[in-house]
Write a structure and sequence with these properties.
The protein has a single domain (39-136), classed as Nucleotidyltransferase, domain 5 (2-Layer Sandwich). A five-stranded mixed beta sheet has the order 4-3-2-5-6. The protein has a two-stranded parallel ribbon with strand order 1-7. Helix content is 31%, strand content 19%. 14% of the residues are buried. Strand 3 (73-75) and strand 4 form a beta hairpin. It starts with 16 loop residues before the first helix and ends with a strand. The radius of gyration is 26 Å and the shape is elongated. The protein is an alpha/beta fold.
Length: 140
């Protein structure tokens, strides 16, 4: 005895509207939560080279300290003295005491003294997670 199977018309007309809505919601979510170019990294600084350099990934609460070729210190693109830098770091540590990070970007032509001075300010203010950035050299 032959059995006839009736095909439903509901399965053949699948609505794509909810799927498109979900795709647009995901697109908006990723656009809102993504980070764009930081204003702090707009100074034209040529970094020194190192063979073991890794690409820098931005952390959510890091402070970027730039040091140009003449030893001037910039935080957020603004020129700061060491006492002003100390005030900025003290405020940042007060708001984020456990995981405040500082990234020191120094021009390769500057002397090492301004870098050491910034490291000293980091130590005095309680920032233990600081790093000096480099770019990958020709031998790496």
């Amino acid at each position: 005895m032959a059995i006839k199977i009736k095909r439903s018309s509901v399965a053949s007309t699948l609505s794509l509207t909810p799927l498109i809505d979900v795709v647009f919601l995901l697109l908006i979510f990723f656009l809102v939560t993504s980070e764009f170019e930081d204003e702090e990294r707009r100074l034209d600084i040529v970094l020194p080279t190192a063979t073991s350099a890794m690409p820098m990934t931005s952390k959510p609460r890091e402070i970027v300290v730039d040091i140009d070729a003449s030893g001037n210190i910039y935080v957020g693109g603004k020129l700061k003295a060491l006492t002003e830098l100390q005030s900025v770091l003290e405020l940042a540590v007060a708001e984020n005491p456990t995981s405040q990070t500082v990234v020191i970007r120094s021009d390769h032509r500057t002397s090492f003294q301004p870098v050491v001075s910034v490291m000293d300010v980091c130590n005095r203010t309680g920032v233990s997670d600081y790093s000096v950035t480099t770019q990958e050299g020709p031998n790496g």
